[in-house]
Amino acid sequence: MPVYWFALSFVQDINWPRAILIFVLLHVLLYPSSNGYNSYMDRDEGSIGGVANPMQPTRQLFYVTVWMDVAAFLLSFLITPSFAAAMLCYIICSRAYSNRYIRLKRFPVIGYLTVIVNQGALVFCMVYYGAAVNSAAQPIPWLPAIAAAFLIGGFYPITQVYQHEADAKDKVTTISMLLGKRGTFLFCAAMYAVAFGLLFVYFQQQRQVSRFMILQLFFIPVIIFFLRWLIQVWKDASRADFKRTMQMNVIAGTCTNLAFIVLLILDQVG
């Protein structure tokens, strides 16, 4: 959701009916389907994705995810054919990431790049072009699009930090396993630093540094929690657990959504 609001805040002239439809397609159909398919393939027995004790998936879940994908793809033509093509690309990459026969998530770097490119840059472009009244007249702001990928890149490994044992049992090597628990935190901090560096350059070029400062205000709680958690993990690796990961998810998601919604509101009233 943060990438959606982030991209929408850069659209100069928003087609609101299409923007609302894009929100529904992404958050009611595409993302839940992707998560459901991943759960079906993984069959996690331990805590995962915000659920402490997940139920074992059934064959019906697989069928539901297929129909949700079909619905998302077909309804995407109401936006534009190019939006539908991007939607199909996301669905294919998501399936390749989780599918037992392809299983891109087995490979730490390829799996990581698949996630950040699709959930970050691709979704940014989909929202930016799809929600614009005249997309042809709005060249994509590439620095924010790349920054979106780095923002996902700084967040995603943290969601894997408590799953090392479960992933190893499933013969999956995530980027977090490759980096180690301490290394995951340092890597995520570096990715966030790059993302905000790109945003600073962009806003400075646009003479909108005040918008960048607004973003920083909303990220203060995230930084404080992250640093406290980093210190705890540095002293005791067991602190990289499910409970703290979910707390980080809630704080980061809430603050990021609010930051980009405020920028969107300021842009609309300005």
From TrEMBL:
**InterPro entries to which the protein is assigned, alphabetical:** UbiA_prenyltransferase
Q: Which UniProt keywords apply?
A: Membrane, Transferase, Transmembrane, Transmembrane helix
What stretch or stretches form a coiled coil here?
none
Keyword flag Transmembrane: yes
The residue ranges crossing the membrane are: 70-97, 109-130, 142-162, 183-203, 209-227, 248-266
Where's it found, cell-wise? Membrane
Q: Name one GO cellular component term.
A: membrane
Q: Name one Pfam family in it.
A: UbiA
Q: Which membrane topology describes this protein?
A: Multi-pass membrane protein
Q: What GO MF terms are annotated?
A: transferase activity, transferring alkyl or aryl (other than methyl) groups
> What protein does this entry describe?
Prenyltransferase
